[in-house]
Amino acid sequence: MIDLMALNRATLSRQLLLERHRMPAVQAVEHLVGLQAQAPMPPYFGLWSRLAGFSTGELSRLLLEREVVRIVLMRGTVHLVSAADCLVLRPLTQPALTRYLEAAYGPRLDGVDRQEILAAGRKALDGVPMTTARLGAVLAERFPGVAAADLAQVMRSLAALVQVTPRGVWGRSGQTAYATAESWLGRELHPEPSIEELVIRYLRAFGPATVADVQTWSGLTGLREVVERLRPRLVELDGGLYDLPEAPRPGADVPAPVRLLAPFDNLLLSHADRTRIITDEHRKRVITINGQVLGTILVDGFVRGTWKRDKQRLTVELFESVTASQAAEIEAEATALLAFAEPGREPHIEGI
Q1: Within a 10 A sphere around the Cβ of 194, how many other Cβ atoms?
Q2: 68 HSE (CA, 13 A, CB side)
Q3: How are beta strands 78-82 and 295-299 bridged, if at all?
Q4: Which of the four pLDDT bands, split at 50, 70 and 90, describes residue 290?
Q5: Residue 253 and residue 214: Cα distance in Å, rounded?
Q6: Does the chain have fewer CB atoms within 10 Å around its N or its C terminus?
């Protein structure tokens, strides 16, 4: 038996959100199976909310030393993952990316050999990172009947392209340019990654979960058969939830501290039923119609508001009233976030 509060606490525990942990950032990134990273900075705040002593320089160094990379993976979205996971996760998520390409672009690519585009794109990127605009223009010279943007999309969907630095490095800027993962990391993609291990890792980071939850997170279909093969290694809870026998499931009465989650935090995006962390009503205020996911505030384990930062100013919008002690905890977390992002500057908190 596991009720909503117990499910909430179990998920927060897996997500490293019941307490800040002391572990290397790359270890946390791998435990979480990556952090969603459409925008460059959210992973920094995602790790800050989970790790004690984390600094922006730690993740910047990992990016510059190519120990972590940003690449399209689960749900067709950009994730920050370790180099090792990049080589494993990209082949596993490729079926969903291929399906998306054909559904969205198939008619516009009618009569064009995808593998020829892929081979030409790989050759163009050999040792020379390119923006998608430049890559599309180069490919359009070879395939003049296809729009440059569509050719670039073929590469984005079918090739493992990583966003190269300085993009994503704290305090630096640069165009979004791509290289193949193989050339950037000096290693080939894993030839036979385990889909069963992917499900196990998902449960370790996001469980307990249903089959639909795993499919929502990964963007893959047909995973019920995979879960069935894993059943001897799993426990089954109420409501079709599966879990790992050894995974932590703290009780519903375990305190959950206030946390400021990063924009696009995977905690809000990785279950078919997200009421374990956010109500359907509140979700409409957090996830916008154009696909933006705002930074959120967890109070007693659930989303109770949003936050936005403008340099040393942080604005809070609460969806419902909180106690005086909870308001003080929100203010303390907001002040700490600004000290992390803008050290040495006077913080300004609004909306509490």
Answers
A1: 13
A2: 30
A3: unpaired
A4: confident
A5: 27
A6: N
pLDDT higher at 217 or 344: 217
Give CA–CA dist 159/121, Å, rounded.
Answer: 9
d(C-alpha 210, C-alpha 240), whole Å: 6
Q: DSSP character for 352?
A: -
- For 117, phi then psi, to 5°, come to -60, -45
CB 114 within 8 A of CB 72: no
| Residue 253 half-sphere exposure toward CB, CA atoms < 13 A | 0
pLDDT at 144 over 80: yes
pLDDT tens-digit profile of 180-216?
999 999 999 999 999 999 999 999 999 999 999 999 9
Do 38 and 78 meet the contact criterion of CB atoms below 8 Å apart? yes
Q: How many CB atoms lie within 10 A of CB 158?
A: 18
SS3 for 125? Answer: coil
User: Residue ranges per domain, the chain?
Assistant: 4-185, 195-243, 259-350
* Contact predicate 298/306, CB 8 Å: no
Strand runs labelled E in the chain: 35-36, 68-72, 78-82, 130-131, 161-163, 177-180, 235-236, 242-243, 259-261, 295-299, 302-310, 313-318, 348-350
Q: Indicate if the pLDDT at residue 289 is higher than 90.
A: no
CB neighbourhood size of 147 (10 A)? 14
Of all residues in the chain, what percent are helix, strand and coil, respectively (each to 5)? 45, 15, 40
Residues 25 and 58 sit within 8 Å (Cβ to Cβ)? yes
State the DSSP code for 293: B
Could you tell me the two tokens for 146? 């296809």
Query: 315 burial class (0-12, 13-18, 19+ CB within 10 angstroms)?
Result: middle
Among candidate residues 207, 195, 194, the one with its CA nearest the CA of residue 246: 207
Cite the beta strand spans of 41-132 per DSSP E: 68-72, 78-82, 130-131
Question: CA nearest 196: which of 218, 168, 164?
Answer: 218
- The per-residue pLDDT of the chain, averaged, comes to 96
In the block, tokens 């935090």 appear at 265
d(CA 139, CA 137): 5
